Amino acid sequence: MPSTLGLALTPQLATTPPSYRVTVSETGSPSVGSVTVLRTDPDGLTRPVRTTDGGPLPISGGTATVTDNEVPFGVPVTYSIAVNNNPTIAGNLQVPEAWLIHLGVPSKSVMLPTIAELTDREQDTAAVVLQPMDRPRPLTIAGSSRPSETGGLVVQTSTSSELVAMRALLDDDSVLLFNVPPSLGYLEPTAYVSIGRARAARLVDYGPEQRRLWTLPYQVVDRPAGGTRAQVAHADVSARFARWSDISAGTTWAQIAAGTA
Q: What is the topology classification, in CATH, of domain 99-121+148-221?
């Protein structure tokens, strides 16, 4: 008889970024060993919750946890596991601010307290228009689909620490999650974006002036694959293991991150 799986959600509004902690519980046997936690978003797409190594979440001792740093804010979502008894649980993480979220290192994510401007999203065409000789009208060769949308935002940083944080966020040129709750009224859907040429302009032409206006053009892209360092920090490991030798041979970072080691 297969084991029974359960799901529980814990809002983590004070973390960077705000997130859901998803707990998987298992009773009975035989154990499934590992699971993929899925999240269905309002756009109808179902996406796997990102783990440390990008693979399934290992279960040990009847429980496992994973942090979802990419849950869209302020909209209903449903978590599920497509195995055994197929458990589901609904959530709606209420966050009052917009964020730019770093997927690989979520602690580098930046809250956007002041969005000075949002440019219109544009969507170019992939069609080619040809003008043959002796024809009054051109011929059009349509592409398979239009390219993804482009847009831009202008945000303000007001202190030296905010300036440093924004630079650190953009430094490795990673794809970011632009997460905007509908409650702000911007009508900007949550999207994975690749930031183009970034510009930090001084508000006042004066040396000690700390305020900057960041112009961040972007293109909407697909969700990147891979893992995240969301749950594995030196402090986490040292709090549980006094010495490296206390970690059992063969233990993976994914097991440590899930709390199953």
A: Elongation Factor Tu (Ef-tu); domain 3 (2.40.30)
